[in-house]
Amino acid sequence: MDNAKPVIEIENLSFTYSTAEKPALKHISLTIYEGEYVALLGLNGAGKTTLQLCLNAVIPHMIVGEKEGTVKIFGMDTEEYPPRELAKMIGLVFDNPEFQLSQMSVAEEIALGLENLGVATADMHKIIKDSLQAVGLSGMEERSPFELSGGQQQRLSIASALAMQPKILVMDEPTSNVDPIGKEEIFAVAAKLNKENKITVIMAEHEVEVMAAYADRIIVLNDGEVVFNGTPVEVFSNVELLDKIGLRVPQVTELVHLLKEKHALKLAEQYPVTIDQAEAIFKQRLS
Amino acid sequence: MADSVIVCENLWHEYPGNILALQEANLKINAGEIVGVIGQNGSGKTTLVKHFNGLLKPTRGKVWVKGKDTAGMRIQQMAKDVGYVFQNPNHQLFARTVEAELEFGPRNLGVPEQEVIERREKAIEFFKLQELRLLHPYRIGFPLRKLVGMASIYTMRPAVFVLDEPTTGQDNITTRTVYRLIRQLRDEGATVVCVAHDMILLAEVVERMVVLRDSRIIADASPREVFSNRELMHSTHLVPPQVTELSLRLKTSGKYPGIELNVNDMVAGMAGRLGK
């Protein structure tokens, strides 16, 4: 990522909610580059959501508390730019789509955000059509959001965020309320937007097996601090340290770790994190 | 039918507005069985299990719970036998403190006061709710509130536990408590019916899987049989746990003999083969 352009620069960020005694984020420094797919892992309460709210400037503009350090989105300091202005660059999708959905029809749902940005009505039709197409909901303009399945509702939330044509998409456990089909749909849409549209994706998620397959980078938060930051292989190789802070690793990583540590077996230097990697290792050893 | 704690005979359920949610369901669940119910949203899973505690009554066919036809029974009469833990704890919790929530069920069943307190304390210890005992359930974060929902059913000691998506929205720590709960219930001889999308959980704890698609039961078999049925998995969009998938692939290429359901079993199997 040496030549890639930084899109998010966080320096020594700490934040304490006005209602809390302890800080939710402590001295976080991170740089995220254009086109990356970053997974945020951590227990509930580790600071994942707070960090995401700092990225679109909801913190400090709409949620009060004590903030230190700086967050820059494309070089723009979030202290100086309110969420409305950053919405063109960074879109947030929450875990529960019903929390976001409010309008009469799918098209109106998307139009709401565009109206807030002052987009001309004449341009809206095409933007809505394109956003729905990007998430596989073409032709659903006139449906009520509440008639959609969980996966479709969540994809509509993504379409609403996409309509603003952001360069960065931040998703907070987007699959926690959907069934396996819905999960597949959302992970596929996020991967497509990342690969084809070069949108930087930041996704908080508990499903480590899926993140191991999709993410370029894993950032682990624990008690408000960044404790790991690297490729899936680099991060998930810390099986025991992650276990200590209550996180698990992909099953195949744990499998190889236990075979090496508990049974002193000589296996691949590098831990597998995906099925394909594990299959290759064992096929070779069992031949 | 002597050992069957739940029997569904040609069970159909149609919601108002001609919405057919369940058809021709035939199922027998024996005392002490741990059964997973899987399928996509809208496949009929929740409709099926809501018949087990009388939340729903058949629109055609019969359901017997512990030998009694549920048609003429009220939910209150059935609560002693079947505890239903909702996916969303907000549908279940109403007391002012966690302690009061845990006491309500057993007291309502006429359990002697001293035992009500004993059960409460055991649940607080088991679910690690010590610091939450005097809080209002709605002041607790969603994952822990969900554990309070499970704990409040656990204090009633029903013979049958229905758990609807117990690990959804949970992180790894609270998920471990769900695993412990299901093992504890098994050790205590309870029957557990667990509706879930979480295949890692089911592979680890259930002995039998009932698969629904488009309002019908399309399979009822062991996790190994279900996970190794590629067509079934594909048609229901379900994905086996990573180690199960790995063992299936290695088995297909003749390099591994069995189908594993959890990491520890695969470690043991693999260590035996690689260590030679």
Would you write up a description of this structure?
The complex is a heterodimer of chains A (about 290) and B (about 280). Chain A is globular and about 65 Å long. With about 290 residues, chain A is of the alpha/beta class. Chain A has 13 helices and ten strands. The relative contact order of chain A is 0.14. In chain A, the strands form two sheets. Chain A has a six-stranded mixed β-sheet, with helices on both faces. In chain A, strand 1 (about 5-15) and strand 2 form a beta hairpin. Chain B is an alpha/beta fold and about 280 residues long. Chain B has a six-stranded mixed β-sheet with strand order 6-7-8-3-9-10. Chain B has a four-stranded antiparallel β-sheet with strand order 2-1-4-5, with no helix packed on it. The mean pLDDT of chain B is about 95. The interface of A and B includes residues 173, 182, 262 and 267 of A.
Summarize the structure.
The complex is a heterodimer of chains A (287) and B (276). In chain A, 41% of the residues lie in helices and 22% in strands. Chain A is an alpha/beta fold and 287 residues long.
